[in-house]
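Hi everyone,

Forwarding the result from last night's run.
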Amino acid sequence: MKKILSVVLCVAMVMLTLSMTSCSNNANKVTINVFNWGENISDGQDGSMDVIREFEKQTGIKVVYSTYESNEAMYNKIKAGGVSYDVIIPSDYMIGKMIKEDMLYKLDYNNIPNYSLIDDEFKKAENMPFDPTLEYCVPYTWGRVALVYNTKKITEPVDSWDILWNEKYKNQILMFDNARDAFGIAQLKLGYSLNTEDETELKNAAEELKKQRSVKPVYAMDQIMEKMPSENAYIAPYYLGDCLTMCDDNEDLAMVIPKEGTNYFVDAMCIPATSEHKAEAEAFINFMCGTEAATANIEYIAYSSPQKEAAANHKKYLIEEYGKETAELVYPTDLSNTEMFLTLSPEANQLMTDLWISVRSGS
């Protein structure tokens, strides 16, 4: 999936015109901290473009880049203080939570002219319920949660979340190691909304996850991207872009959207209210929205792009390399069988957290 970019693209990057006047005078004195999901940026491996180095080269702004495995880990790190991050890339429901807790700056979109390249669908309040005033974020990627499985080891039809509870695959199942995603699968299995706050339904979902412990699931996040291609497990739920990368690394892997439906997510670039370099952070966000950077980035990480021109380039590439069926999985035209995570009330969130602790501890 990590397509080698052409020399023409690299030359075009050098010619990019960015609106960075506000920070240019101090660029060589500024370092920004970028906090992102693991495996979620084009970093120069496999012939891809190192977009951070390209940004540094063009602006003189230095970047310290670090990663996290879950929204909750990112939130807890920022809440604890100690490190001042300048750009973070949370998912929808976590953005909503951070907005409610005054943890994010409102963006100055005058400093992000490439925001004009983001698809208009992501500029509608009804499609961005976590940021209803459209003031706090710029979409980075979007996608769905899928099942990835080994076709040599699992020959029966894979079309339901139920398979993650199948005793036949005991000790060979991986499971999300974060409450919201894990509960989401159990809720879909039980026919509940992903955003239920009903105490009985949340407890039923927890009981379902406790039942799953009989098949000895291994709880994991980024490790899934190593364990599945290396055939240390038979099946796992994960984010579709990463599933495609895993399938690319092992031809015996396949991916599917279960019939019960799935989570549809949007990850977006935000600036924490503790940032000390807001203008430079906005320059970074603007750069990542440019067509060349966005195209290089999305072709490497394999998610769906909200940037119009990058998405068009990516779809064309997917059709040429993998066929229309894969392109439709990555860029579905029908999202009716999906649901976005919304920000839960503090009470429901605390209940889920407590129940998750009991699931993980086996109590």
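Residues 1-27 have pLDDT under 50 and may be disordered.

Cheers,
N.
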